[in-house]
Design goal:
Layout (H helix, E strand, L loop, with lengths): L3 E5 L6 H9 L3 E5 L2 H5 L3 E4 L4 H10 L2 H10 L3 E5 L1 H6 E5 L11 E6 L9 E8 L2 E8 L3 E5 L4 E6 L2 E7 L2 E4 L10 H11 L19 H7 L1
Parallel strand pairs: 1-2, 1-3, 3-4, 4-12, 5-6
Antiparallel strand pairs: 6-9, 7-8, 10-11, 11-12
The site of glutamine has 11 residues, from helix 5.
């Protein structure tokens, strides 16, 4: 059965994510309300403006609903602003901006190195490169214990994971390369038994991103 993966569609770059997920075999649905969220197994949080998304998550009633689903082990993939939403600490955020704390990382908004605007660059993973499109990208300034760095750019983490929570500071949906979405779909379909989701250590049989990248 195809997994049903929602794409948070309150604001930002959600359409390209749905296209990429569909090409990877998922059924997708746009999530704007708590009722939409009930129908999905996993959620992608797109790029956009994290402070606006935070406000819209609260006004739509989705913030608490998403937090509850993450706490009960739903797989999530956040890109750029979506990564900010998943982080445990936002630096240079708006004072009222909230995040889910699903990944123990500190991220600084709009602060990737000295290049604060857009740039493209290859990202190193142990098995090769992935083309990264960075648009006013957040910089990961701290990675907590249990968070695995899966990709880096000039030595800085840009792709991180803990269990089935995956986050990228770039926009994989704009790279014309579906390998990361394919990897996320495989995380969703190989969901751990209840109580084990969020485990820091990959479980036996769990697909590794390195295999996915090699195959792609
Ligand atoms: N700068 C945006 C923010 O802070 C993120 C940019 C993006 O998602 N491309 O929310």
């Amino acid at each position: 059965m195809n997994p049903v993966i929602g794409v948070l569609a309150l604001q930002g770059a959600f359409a390209a994510h749905a296209d990429s997920l569909s090409r990877c075999g998922a059924t997708t649905c746009e999530v704007r309300t708590p009722a939409d969220l009930r129908d999905v197994q996993a959620l992608v949080m797109p790029g956009g403006e994290s402070s606006t998304m935070s406000q819209l998550l609260e006004s739509s009633g989705l913030f608490d609903a998403v937090a509850d689903r993450i706490a009960s082990g739903m797989a999530v993939f956040g890109t750029c602003a979506g990564m900010i939403l998943l982080s445990s600490e936002i630096l240079d955020g708006r004072p009222d901006q909230r995040s889910f704390g699903a990944l123990d990382i500190s991220v600084r908004r709009n602060a990737f190195g000295r290049q604060i605007d857009s740039f493209e660059s290859d990202i190193d993973t142990p098995q090769g490169t992935f083309h990264g499109v960075f648009i006013r990208a957040p910089r990961i300034e701290r990675v907590g214990p249990g968070v695995e760095v899966m990709g880096s750019l000039r030595g800085e983490p840009v792709l991180v994971r803990r269990g089935n929570v995956l986050a990228a500071s770039f926009h994989p949906e704009l790279a014309g390369d579906d390998r990361l979405h394919g990897y996320f779909v495989s995380l969703v379909t190989s969901a751990a038994p209840a109580g084990e989701t969020g485990a820091a250590v990959p479980r036996p049989g769990e697909p590794s991103i390195h295999e996915t990248i090699r195959e792609g």
